[in-house]
Structure prediction request, 889 residues.
Amino acid sequence: MDIASKYDPHAVEEKWYAYWLEKKMFHSEPDHRVPYTVVIPPPNVTGVLHMGHMLNNTIQDVLVRRARMQGKNACWVPGTDHASIATEAKVVNMLKEKGIDKRDLSRDEFMEHAWQWKEEHGGIILKQLRKLGASCDWDRTAFTMDEVRYESVIRVFVDLYNKGLIYRGVRMVNWDPKALTAVSDEEVIYKESHSKLYYLRYYLENSDKYIVVATTRPETILGDSAVCVHPDDERYQHLKGQRVVVPGVGRVVPIIMDEYVDREFGTGALKITPAHDINDYNLGMKYHLETIDIFNDNGTLNGAVSKNPNPTEQSTAQRYNGMDRFACRKQIVKDLVESNLIEKIEDYTNKVGHSERTDAVIEPKLSAQWFMRMGDVAQKALQVVEDGQIQFHPEKFKNIYRHWLENIKDWCISRQLWWGQRIPAYYLPNGEVVVAATRDEAFALAQQQYPGVCSTDDDLRQDEDVLDTWFSSWLWPISLFDGIRHPDNEEIRYYYPTADLVTAPDIIFFWVARMIMAGEEYRHEVPFKHVYFTGIVRDKLGRKMSKSLGNSPDPIELMNKYGADGVRMGMLLTAPAGNDLPFDESICEQGRNFSNKIWNALRLVKGWEVSDQLHQPEECKLSIEWFEQRMASVIETVEHNFDQYRLSEALMATYKLVWDDFCSWYLEMIKPAYGTPIDMQTFQTTLDIFEKLMCMLHPFMPFVTEEVWHLLRVHFDNESIMKCHYPTSVFYDQRTLDEFATAQEIIAGVRGLRNSKGLSPREALQLFIHIPADANFTERYYPIIRKVANVSSIEPTDQKVEGALSFLVGTIECFVPVSQNIDTEAELKKLNEELTYTQGFLASVMKKLSNEKFVNGAPEKVVAVERKKQSDAEQRIEALKAQIAALQQ
Prediction:
């Protein structure tokens, strides 16, 4: 068989991915097997592959490929999210470049442009995932606004409304002035901001006396309705029932007293602006204060005044009308300074809310929105995690989850956009509202509930808003199998609940919690059993990778440079669950080097001449016996790591088994002498071992393992390594592994002597060994030591060997006679350093054993270990002293 001298990952990746697709090896249909279902966290349809996607989807693919090889019916469902805010922004910008203003279009016209953009630019990321090797069932690719998902969302809205869980009301919401929509609490990111604290003078009505109020937002004085102080604050007792003049505005407002005020903040007096702060809004409701909304939706001033404005208030409002809120802040401060209405200005650091999507500073705003009540559904979602029906990996995220659900607020589910599922609420001419899945159903409902109000369905006006994107993705594990429209269909009964969810912790509230709520509400069952939280991919400086910082490499370029397997392995080796990944491109190089190592091992093995006339040498028999035991122990470790979702450790154990144990030791031990054949029995067993190793490695590195597996032996069409059984643990003898580890140390000791004394590797050496009675070592592995260490003979000895160099392996003394002169002084220095270290080690052990409290209180096994350390150290000291004495003669 002609095997290329160099591994070409690009040719291999293209060949095998096309083969897998052609043979439909990723496709799943319900059958008799145990299902293993994973649903992809749907990336934004606007998105392209970034490092976070790479990590997340690599982990999913590892779990899915392993499950498939375990004989389960693996179904990994891909799809994309319509991403209301992000997509609408993209479409609006696209239209702007064409000279089209969204406001000049009808809703239907805009949606035509949006769907066209989606078809042309959406879904790029799913194509990129194929290059990574993602083994998704592409026949099942879904979109959160396709027919099945759209109808499912509408049905759920209607159902929850009829259950009384969805309602419409005017509430204080988080308003994004850039996207021109409300966003939920979870979509607000709080960032530290270096602001200013402005101390403003509020003069008492008809007086030259004033009180000072501190604020970070002086522009909102235009909406002030009161000043509030604590009822027990002695500084303000005399002001009870009085009124003050809003500085620069001229509006006269009352002083109210409420325990809400923090007497330690600022001056202990607060300005109350009910329309632009949630706490002020609550106080406004409590004390029946006027609510003056001073902002347009885009964050500019609107010139609003109170119900009974005086001339000063009217002229002030007009002066700032149309200004951006931040420009207004600067101008108002300037005007107040000129009017001597600012006491002082201080630097102040605070947290300011930003829109997760647009990064615009959030504006608290009173708005009529649709909400979902979260009380009861949140309690159910908490309970299933608390009682272990759903397990988080790592478990630390359970505390974050619990805190959020115990403090949850009603979910604002409406968005002032056009791209998304339009809210199925219809308003009648008399102001009443009906909720139904279709206009026809709404008209029938309107005639039933409000006879004579509507003559045709044209009298109905549908709500202009769409639903929050998360209101579609929270149904994802159910709607992917059409479980909302057809709750008893075969697929939802077979594939639901899913097995594992792999996601980033930053959407634990947006998505994970809400999917659990939906699962309990519509399936009365959790949507998944395990949640694996990935870490955040960071650069060498610890910064989160992002386009804005320019510190995120292009994943496609990385795969072009190092191969998909190399990048997959590089990321996984440094990706412990829940902990951040310190990404360094060199780890991808390590992954590429590993592919090359495997390839070179393949070329070595397949390059051997094989003879069926030769008997199996003893060293080959011993090597196979050891490696099979070693592989069994590593498989057990890997299984345990997978059970604990420690994929990084599972890969590292497999990596060391292949690189160190197989390539560096096993192949070296069985390798025939140059120009001579290998026996058939050893060769065939080596192919078996090689195949098994590729099966262990396949979930992590699918391409190189498929290629090597096909080159090891001839396979028929439709065959694939992913159809092989994933290796499972069997019994292994730990004593065999321990004894071989000693043989490895002896071989390393002989090699070390060669290197330090400049002896040729080709020069066969004699080896004398003194094995104490209590040492766990026999002559069993002498054939391997002779071959690998190039030792002509191994003889037992009870005394030191004259003219020989020596070394210790535990308490085993090894002597190697050498023909050339040695540097006695250097050798003595090395032995004396080792003697000093061992004496110090013995002293620390004796100190512990001389402690009666330790000896009497510690477990018997722990004390026995310390006594063994004492015995070994004493024997080692005696051996070192003997070696030193011999050199000094």
Remarks:
- Residues 409 and 578 are 26 Å apart (CA to CA).
- The chain has 28 helices and 31 strands.
- The mean pLDDT is 93.
- The radius of gyration is 37 Å.
